[in-house]
């Protein structure tokens, strides 16, 4: 996996201060990429940068503030990136929240749909000019096994008519996968070299499995280590999607083990719901309307 050098390339990873994002950042740094850690908590980002520097002293790593639950923050981040960088090879839409109590984003969206999907949708759209300016750039969006059996409830996107954490998490992860698929279709329709694809980490031991702000009891951590794969393995589908030379765009990459829960990266088939072009188009249009971000595919 690590023979594909990233020297001279620039990568943005959302939620890169821990878990899958941090492990992905470590691999990119080892491969010579200039890595931007896009994080909500700057102090945690600085700690992650230090951890990467200890492994890869020559790495060029930068911490930048990004709160995906706040569209003003997304816009400010994108403007900052575009003003300072003249290319963007990799955008890794990695950050996510999982099954929180019912809450809303700064802009009034249900927290999981707003952060996991809309925040990344807006970020990608705002950074698209830089991505299109960079030959063979890639957008990798993280989905989840939870996208299976999920659906997009357009009549209750904000959760005001009832909320179940896991149901809304699945909806947000289906939205991630539909977005990645639809984005690749539109890039190809415009004859562009930028690729969009999706991946998922299987079931990996990350901070998503904390209980609120508390660490999990030791007995549960032991069970997790037995049944879940470490974040280093969970990050492999992301690294594969970002670097494998055989990628054509539109693929969905996940672990090759039983139930796709753990293992090494392989091409996977998403749930058939992802292939519903009508729903994908509606989701795109709703996302543009809610986020106020439209995609311009002209270079």
TrEMBL record:
Superkingdom as given in the UniProt entry: Bacteria
Gene3D superfamilies: NAD(P)-binding Rossmann-like Domain (3.40.50.720)
Record keywords: Oxidoreductase
One Pfam family recorded for the sequence: adh_short
CDD domains associated with the record: retinol-DH_like_SDR_c_like
InterPro entries (alphabetical): NAD(P)-bd_dom_sf, SDR_fam
NCBIfam families xrefs: PRK05854.1, PRK06197.1
Protein name from the UniProt record: Oxidoreductase
Organism of provenance: Metaplanococcus flavidus
